[in-house]
């Protein structure tokens, strides 16, 4: 077994990692994440901030939530979204550093 093969993750982990990076491959989802850098917001506020429909924002939030990049918290009838953790901020920051080199 070569050194490269020894460090290779298994196929399941590779697929999961590829799926995670696909989520970052959509500029609308990135725009939502950048707004959420500032704090917790309901769908309506995100839609207004990004000049998009609530339906479009909700669709993207579902993908972000499924991939554990955002959290949702219910307060009465309103659902508030926030970044899941600091890893999300770090991934985007490292991506920005890379493209700015």
Q: What is the gist of this entry?
A:
With 101 residues, this protein is an alpha+beta fold. Helix content is 63%, strand content 14%. It has one domain (10-100): Arc Repressor Mutant, subunit A (Orthogonal Bundle).
Key terms for this structure?
101 residues, alpha+beta, Arc Repressor Mutant, subunit A, three-stranded antiparallel beta sheet, 6 helices
What does this structure look like?
With 101 residues, the chain is an alpha+beta fold. The chain has helices at residues 3-7, 11-23, 27-36, 43-50, 54-66, 86-100, and strands at residues 41-42, 70-75, 78-83. A hairpin with a 2-residue loop joins strand 2 (70-75) and strand 3. Helix 4 crosses helix 5. The N and C termini lie far apart (35 Å). The mean pLDDT is 94.
Mean pLDDT: 94
Helicity level: 55-70%
Percentage of β-strand residues: 5-15%
C-alpha end-to-end distance: 35 Å
CATH domain topology: Arc Repressor Mutant, subunit A
Could you outline the blueprint of secondary structure elements for this entry?
Elements: H1 3-7, H2 11-23, H3 27-36, E1 41-42, H4 43-50, H5 54-66, E2 70-75, E3 78-83, H6 86-100
Antiparallel strand pairs: 1-3, 2-3
Helix pairs in contact: 4-5
């Amino acid at each position: 077994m070569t050194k490269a093969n020894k460090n290779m993750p298994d196929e399941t982990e590779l697929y999961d990692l590829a799926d995670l990076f696909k989520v970052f491959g959509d500029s609308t989802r990135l725009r939502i994440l950048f707004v959420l850098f500032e704090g917790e917001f309901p769908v309506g506020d995100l839609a207004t901030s990004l000049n998009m429909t609530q339906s479009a924002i909700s669709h993207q939030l579902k993908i972000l939530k499924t991939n554990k990049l955002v959290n949702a918290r219910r307060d009465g009838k309103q659902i508030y979204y926030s970044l899941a953790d600091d890893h999300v901020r770090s991934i985007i920051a490292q991506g920005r550093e890379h493209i700015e080199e």
